[in-house]
Write a structure and sequence with these properties.
With 172 residues, the chain is an alpha/beta fold. It folds into two domains: 36 residues; 124 residues, no CATH class. The chain is 20% helix and 39% strand. It is elongated, with a radius of gyration of 30 Å.
Length: 172
Amino acid sequence: MSSIRVLVSRITTKKVPALTLVVVGIVGMVAGVLAATITLNQAIYTGEVGTYHNNTGIFTVTDNGLSIVANAASTNATNAITIAGSGIALNNALTAGHWMDVLTFQMNTPGISTHTATITARNGAGPEGTSLATVTSGTWTTSGTSTGIVTFYVDLGTASLTAPVTVYINIT
């Protein structure tokens, strides 16, 4: 019992633990104040002005917006494909760090036919802007039961863009 009293008396006579406790308390309060006053704001960059669609009514085209190419990939854009019941991903040559536009093509009414898509992206001021990329797909064959979605990743060929960006899509 006396050894416990000796230990307690030694702890209470030391000044270092008390000072450490005060410093830790002050640091904790400062961290709490900073955490309460810091706010995070997400900036959604939407630099596209619009997308011009000219198609035969077979496809609904959705522009999913601009993003950055994460990994390089070789082109498969000009491959002939058959649209069945699952998704197909196509792209021109992708270079990591470049801007890309992501487009999806979904059939409205399945029918037996063939199609090609030409995608042209432009940016900058002026009546037409500056041409960034033009990609023409291979032949897309559809059947009476085609329900698949084609997702097209178009590398715009640059790591910097000048607003506005306009995308033209022509499906025949």
